[in-house]
TrEMBL record:
Residue stretches spanning the membrane: none
Taxonomic path: Bacteria, Bacillati, Bacillota, Clostridia, Eubacteriales
GO molecular function, one term: oxidoreductase activity, acting on the aldehyde or oxo group of donors, NAD or NADP as acceptor
Pfam assignment, any one: Aldedh
Keyword hit for Thylakoid: no
Keywords of the record: Oxidoreductase
Top-rank lineage group of the source organism: Bacteria
InterPro entries per UniProt: Ald_DH/histidinol_DH, Ald_DH_C, Ald_DH_N, Aldehyde_DH_dom, Aldehyde_DH_Superfamily
Gene3D superfamilies: Aldehyde Dehydrogenase, Chain A, domain 1, Aldehyde Dehydrogenase, Chain A, domain 2
Residue intervals of the Aldehyde dehydrogenase domain: 63-502
Name of the protein this chain belongs to: Aldehyde/histidinol dehydrogenase
C-alpha cells in the first residue's frame, strides 16, 4: 500500500464541508454576439474521487459547451462585425467610456468570488486559499490596468513639436483577438490577456481551457450585460477542430495563447496572413535553481520545496530542475527529503494543504513513466514513497542524479517530480543553459556576491528573470513577464499588456496642416485627435 493510500480518504459528498459542496451544472452555455446560447455539451468530471462499493469514481460536475466548427465560426463572425474595421461601437468608444464599462463589470464580478472558489476547487483541485488569491489578484490586476491606462491616455494628450511638425500619438486597437488560456489559472491568466485586449478597444473570442472551464460560466451573464454584442465571445470545443477554421479566416489580429510550443506553432501556421498576426505566447518552461555551498540551507530548501511543489508543480513558474553544488549535494538532498515528508496533502478545502489531486487525465502515469525512464539511466528516487500515487494524488519524487540521457532532464514535467543534478563550476551551468530550449526564469541561492554576479551575467542572456534567494514567480504584475527561446513570445505586465494589444497611431501636421490641426483640437469633435 502506498504512502498516500494509507492516509487517503475518498470523500463522500456528505463528508465535505457544506460551504464547499457543489451542484452539478446540467446545461452547457456559450456567449456569442451578446447572447447566452445553450450549446451541445461535453461532460466534465472532477479530479476529486469517491468510493462506491469497491469502485473509485470521479464526481461529475456538469457540461461544458462543445461546439462544432460551424458553431465556433459564429463567434469570430460576431467579433468581426462588432469591430467592423474599427468603425464598430466598441472601438469607436473613448478610453473613458471603455474604462467605465470595465469598472462596472469588475464591480459586479465581486459577487462571483465564493462560487468561483468552490468551482475551481472541484474542477482542478486548487487549494482554497490559492483559489481565493487568484480571484483577488485578478480584481487587483483589473484595477491597476485601469489606473495605468488612464495615465497612458493622459500622456497621449501631449502635442509633440518635432522639426516643424506637430503630432499627437495615441494607441489604437488592432482588431479581433483570439485568446486561449491555461487550466491552472483559468481566471487570472485568461483575464491578464482579456482585460487589456478588451479595454484597448479590440473584440475578443476566448476559448475555454480543457479543465477549469465551468468556473467561468457564471461570468457569461455579466459579460453579456456589460459589453456591446459581439465584443466578447466565449466558446469551447475540441481545439484541433474549432480553432483552425477561426484562424483560417485571416481576421484574427492578435493571438494570446498559453500552452505548448507545438500547438502555438500550428495555430500560427493556419493564419493565411501570419505576418499580420501579433502573438503573445506563454509556453513551456524548465526553470532551474542553482544552489551554492554557502547558501542559507533552511531558506533554500523551503523556497525550493514551495517553488517545485506549490499547486502540485502545475505552474509555468515552478522550479523544474534543481542544480546543487557537489560540496553540498548530500546535505541538500537529505534536508529536502525531510521537508517533503512533512508536507500536507489531501483535498483542496483542507487547511494548509500543498498537494491535491492532479487535474489532467493520465498525468500520474506520465510522471511515473519519466521516473522509471530516469531510473533506467541511473537516477534514484531519494525520498521514501516518492512516485507512489493513489487515484489522482501523486506523492513527490526527488530524482538524483538527473543527467541529459533522461527525458526528465529536458521535458517540462508540470507535476510533483523534482529532478536534481550536481555541478562543480559555472562551466557546467553554462553548458546546460546553452543546451536548454527554454528560458523563462532561474533562481540563485547563495550569500556571495562573488558567486552570484558572474552567474547573473550568464543567466541574463538565457532567461528573462533571475530570482535571488527566492523561488521563481510571476508577480508583482507590474513587472515584465516573458521568456526567451521556446518559453514565450511577447511580454505581459500591466503596461506591457496594454501595449501588446494595441498599436501607436498618430496624426501629424506640417506647416500647411497646422491650422487644420489646431482647428480640430479647438472644436473637440474628434475622438482620436483631442486634448
Amino acid at each position: 500500500m502506498s504512502v498516500i493510500e494509507k492516509n487517503l480518504l475518498y470523500p463522500s459528498m456528505e463528508s465535505i464541508p457544506r460551504q464547499f459542496q457543489i451542484t452539478c451544472r446540467n446545461e452547457a452555455r456559450c456567449l456569442i454576439n451578446g447572447k447566452i446560447i445553450p450549446a451541445p455539451g461535453k461532460e466534465v468530471y472532477s479530479p476529486i474521487q469517491y468510493r462506491e462499493s469497491a469502485v473509485i469514481k470521479n464526481y461529475r460536475l456538469g457540461y461544458t459547451p462543445w461546439l462544432d466548427p460551424s458553431q465556433a465560426l459564429d463567434a469570430i463572425k460576431a467579433a468581426e462585425l462588432a469591430y467592423d474595421y474599427g468603425w464598430g461601437v466598441w472601438p469607436q468608444m473613448t478610453i473613458k467610456e471603455r474604462i467605465h464599462c470595465v469598472e462596472e463589470f469588475a464591480l459586479r464580478m465581486q459577487d462571483l468570488q465564493e462560487g468561483f472558489i468552490c468551482q475551481v476547487m472541484w474542477e482542478i483541485a486548487k487549494p482554497y486559499q490559492s483559489s481565493k488569491d487568484e480571484f483577488q489578484r485578478t480584481l487587483k490586476y483589473m484595477e491597476e490596468t485601469i489606473i495605468h491606462l488612464r495615465e497612458l491616455d493622459k500622456n497621449a494628450a501631449k502635442i509633440h513639436q518635432i522639426e516643424g511638425f506637430a503630432a499627437q500619438i495615441r494607441r489604437s486597437p488592432l482588431g479581433p483577438v483570439l485568446l486561449m488560456g491555461p487550466f491552472n489559472y483559468p481566471l487570472n491568466e485568461a483575464f491578464a490577456m482579456f482585460i487589456p485586449a478588451l479595454i484597448m478597444g479590440n473584440t475578443v473570442v476566448m476559448k475555454l481551457p480543457s479543465w477549469g472551464c465551468l468556473c467561468l460560466d457564471p461570468f457569461l451573464d455579466l459579460l453579456a450585460d456589460s459589453f456591446p454584442p459581439g465584443v466578447v465571445n466565449i466558446i469551447n470545443g475540441e481545439g484541433s477542430k474549432i480553432i483552425p477554421p477561426i484562424v483560417e479566416r485571416g481576421s484574427i489580429n492578435v493571438l494570446g495563447f498559453i500552452g505548448t510550443t507545438a500547438v502555438a506553432n500550428k495555430i500560427i501556421a493556419d493564419h493565411p496572413y501570419n505576418n499580420r498576426l501579433r502573438t503573445i505566447l506563454g509556453l513551456e518552461a524548465k526553470n532551474p535553481a542553482f544552489v551554492f555551498p554557502d547558501c542559507d540551507l533552511e531558506l533554500t530548501v523551503q523556497e525550493c520545496l514551495q517553488g517545485a511543489l506549490e499547486f502540485n508543480g502545475q505552474r509555468c513558474t515552478s522550479l523544474k530542475h534543481i542544480w546543487v553544488h557537489e560540496e553540498i549535494c548530500e546535505r541538500f538532498l537529505d534536508a529536502l527529503s525531510q521537508a517533503v515528508a512533512k508536507i500536507k496533502y489531501g483535498m483542496p478545502w483542507d487547511q494548509d494543504v500543498l498537494l491535491t489531486p492532479l487535474a489532467e487525465e493520465g498525468k500520474c502515469e506520465r510522471l511515473l513513466h519519466w521516473i522509471y525512464q530516469a531510473e533506467e539511466h541511473g537516477a534514484k528516487t531519494v525520498n521514501p514513497g516518492g512516485g507512489e500515487y493513489a487515484g489522482n494524488l501523486f506523492y513527490p519524487s526527488i530524482l538524483f542524479p538527473v543527467t541529459r540521457e533522461m527525458d526528465i532532464y529536458h521535458v517540462e514535467q508540470f507535476g510533483p517530480v523534482i529532478p536534481v543534478s550536481s555541478f562543480r563550476s559555472l562551466d557546467d551551468i553554462a553548458v546546460y543553459l546553452a543546451e536548454c530550449q527554454f528560458g523563462q526564469q532561474a533562481s540563485i541561492f547563495t550569500n556571495s556576491a562573488q558567486m552570484a554576479a558572474p552567474l547573473i551575467d550568464i543567466l541574463a542572456h538565457q532567461v528573462s528573470r533571475v530570482n535571488l534567494n527566492a523561488q521563481c514567480r510571476r508577480g508583482p504584475d507590474e513587472l515584465p513577464f516573458t521568456g526567451r527561446k521556446d518559453s514565450a513570445e511577447g511580454t505581459l505586465s500591466i503596461v506591457d499588456a496594454l501595449r501588446a494589444f494595441s498599436i501607436r497611431s498618430l496624426v501629424v501636421a506640417n506647416e500647411h496642416g497646422k491650422e487644420l490641426f489646431n482647428k480640430i483640437l479647438a472644436a473637440d469633435n474628434c475622438k482620436f485627435l483631442h486634448r
